[in-house]
Specification:
The chain has 1 helix and 24 strands. With about 325 residues, the protein is mainly beta. It has one domain (about 25-300): TolB, C-terminal domain (Neuraminidase), CATH 2.120.10. The strands form 6 sheets. It has a 4-stranded antiparallel β-sheet with strand order 3-2-1-24, with no helix packed on it. It has a 4-stranded antiparallel β-sheet with strand order 4-5-6-7, with no helix packed on it. The chain is globular.
């Protein structure tokens, strides 16, 4: 009897210890996806995975993904763009032509998609998913038309209805109107992503650099791996400015280099203050909360409507 009581006490102690251990996913509600050998996406609320998508037999990596206000998801996966509802039923799908790739896409309302197609003739495209009609299309210049994979990764619409495009192989970020006219540009080494901030500045991310530039192209803030000595930075991809003024950035790990060791692999995302102090890290590499490599991290702490954007007169 005494042995049974001792065992019960030990079990209860373990239970309470587990209950008091915070989830590695705690801190923010978020939607998550990343470039990896398989297509995986997760929705995390209150430290728990409440929705997930897995396509282990997939061809192509997820480079961009957006969770809409109705729970549907639009994602670009190298060889196409797919829109699924919350039950994972395909609403719309686009397959890139042979020799082309698609690494970024964004919904415009619930009827249109804007995406960039890498390839011998790279271009920006707006499609009406209800009619299947291409409503806008214009070419984009690249540094090397023969290097399809290295042309573009991320593009985003601004509040003004323009499009910010990170030209990876052209070493610049450019802003375009709906007719393809270049309105603004700033040099940047191999940019992966760019976001127009509420203050009118632009936040640009490259593998080893995050920089905020003003409309004149002058750097007003930046962060690089040397500013984060306690963290191993393998590769920034997309950064976002949070309402509290901090910057959230993913830290992508290349899973093609070999198996990921949960104990030795760096954090997948960091929240950084303007003074470059890390105030939140996401490190979830072990089951049952293994999220895999990080590319897209959409914070959901506040209600939002990501599809409430426009491209010039296209709504």
């Amino acid at each position: 009897m005494k042995a049974q009581i001792t065992l019960l006490v030990a079990v209860l102690a373990l239970y309470h210890a587990a209950a008091e251990t915070p989830s590695p996913l705690a801190g923010h509600d978020f939607f998550y996806a990343g470039e990896a050998k398989t297509q995986d996406m997760y929705l995390v609320r209150k430290g728990e995975i409440v929705w997930s998508f897995h396509n282990p037999g997939s061809r192509g990596e997820i480079s961009d993904a957006v969770l809409l206000s109705n729970g549907s998801v639009l994602f670009a996966h190298q060889f196409g763009v797919t829109w699924i509802d919350s039950a994972k039923k395909v609403i719309w799908n686009y397959d890139a032509p042979e020799g082309c790739e698609t690494h970024t896409a964004q919904p415009i309302g619930k009827e249109r998609v804007i995406f960039i197609q890498n390839g011998p003739e790279p271009k920006c495209v707006v499609v009406n998913i209800l009619t299947g009609k291409t409503e806008r299309e214009f070419p984009l210049r690249v540094g090397n038309p023969k290097s399809t994979h290295g042309q573009f990764r991320h593009a985003r619409l601004t509040a003004a209805g323009t499009l910010l495009v990170a030209h990876m192989d052209h070493a610049k970020v450019s802003e375009y109107d709906e007719h393809g006219n270049e309105l603004w540009t700033t040099p940047f080494p191999s940019p992966w992503a760019a976001e127009r901030l509420a203050n009118g500045n632009t936040l640009v991310t490259g593998t080893k650099l995050i920089r905020e530039v003003n409309p004149a192209g002058e750097a007003v803030w930046e962060c690089n791996p040397a500013d984060l000595p306690e963290h191993e930075i393998q590769g920034f991809q997309i950064a976002a400015r949070l309402p509290n003024g901090n910057t959230l950035v993913n830290n992508w790990v290349n899973s093609w280099d070999g198996p990921v060791d949960p104990a030795a692999t760096p954090a997948q995302a960091l929240e950084i203050t303007p003074a470059k102090k890390v105030v939140w890290t996401l490190k979830a590499w072990a089951a049952p909360t293994d999220l895999g490599p990080a590319t897209t991290l959409q914070i959901l702490d506040f209600p939002s409507v990501p599809e409430d954007v426009h491209f010039g007169e296209i709504h």
